[in-house]
Amino acid sequence: MRHIESQVTSLSYAAPVLLVGAGPVAREEFDYVHELTQATIAVDGGYNALHAWGVTPDVVLGDMDSIRAEVGEATKVLRVHEQDSTDLEKALRLVGAPLYLGIGFLDGRVDHTLAAMHVLIAASHRRIILVGSEDVIFAAPDEWQISLPPRTRISFYPMRRIRGLKSSGLRWPLDGLVLESGTRIGVSNETIAGKVTAQFSERGVVTILPRDCLRDVIDSLA
Predict the structure, then answer these.
(1) pTM exceeding 0.85
(2) Taking a C-beta distance cutoff of 8 angstroms, is the pair 163, 204 a contact?
């Protein structure tokens, strides 16, 4: 494996970055998200798909245990030797950016998807949107609003005990509801107005929308 081992321990970008994980991902997903970012970062085994498509990432990072393709000699590598954190956690620790769009973190193993949802909440102070073949998911701010067409599917999945304080534009309002895994969750809701608002007692809810709402989600997190 020939590459340039970077002498820096972290990188910082002033524009949105694309993180490519090792999970199932199609070239169409990459093209859909890539045009919205200015740097492409292969997160460990995410390099395999990029290599197969003939795409050279700006950086490859991780412990390199999932990379099957040869990394080119001019490719910058940030190697992380510890295995106590997930690939997504490593990427967020090493890369600073105003917005992270991630592909290859959903649609595969359920435990990997759950781990990614955990990271969204653990790093909810950062703007992170994960994109799959059907959905976009992100950590909802405690006060959030978005413009969406009526009858848009929307789900709120609590990762900890959360109270819905007030909401608008939803077929089933969240006002006063206590959401918690194992008791009550807020999946398969639907918008009934062009503007949706939701206020929670704290951050801790993963919001799920159809993939074609990506640009609307980005605007809502600005």
Answers:
(1) yes
(2) no
